[in-house]
UniProtKB/TrEMBL annotation:
Source organism of the structure: Nocardia pseudobrasiliensis
InterPro entries given in the database record: F420H2_bilvrd_red/Heme_oxyg (IPR052019), Pyridox_Oxase_N (IPR011576), Split_barrel_FMN-bd (IPR012349)
Full protein name: Pyridoxamine 5'-phosphate oxidase
Gene3D superfamilies found in the cross-reference section: Electron Transport, Fmn-binding Protein, Chain A
Residues in coiled coil: none
Start and end residues of each Pyridoxamine 5'-phosphate oxidase N-terminal domain: 35-115
Keyword Oxidoreductase: yes
Pfam short name (any one): PNPOx_N
Keywords assigned: Oxidoreductase
GO molecular function, one term: oxidoreductase activity, acting on the CH-CH group of donors
GO cellular component: cytosol
Amino acid sequence: MQFETTNLDIYGHDPLPWSRARDALDGFAAEPGKPVFLSTCRPDGRPHTAGVGALWLDGGVYIVSGPSTRKSRNLAVNPACTVTFSLPGLDLVIEGDAAVVTDTPTLERIAARYRELGWPVEVDGRAFTAPYSAPSAGTPPWQLYFVTPRAAVGVASAEPHGATRWHFG
């Protein structure tokens, strides 16, 4: 992955290496105590933020959402979004574009990962179904999205401190 690094730190710290963020994300799955937030833009331009179940795999973020939810309706009009993580020692915002995943091999692979984590999800056509999901997810089937990172901002909350923006090319 090629990227440009911009040091945002005003206190003289070195830029944070992307490897710090990448290593913190490796195998990440949202769970209680490890929340993830998705921010989208409503058609009238107002922001919308919601907690989401998220997985970091394949160099990006997988999220699940019902097609009737505000976040899915927003993404259908404008796929640009941010996904926010509070990782050990690093707060991270991924900026990217979300796309609905419909290919069966990817759906099956991600469903298997969710089952490993305790969510009994199954592939149903080009989406997911399960006996339950988040209270705000709407009724099944739920769509799987992949957020392709375009840029990220990391702010270290532990040594070594710093603030950095990475733009992926």
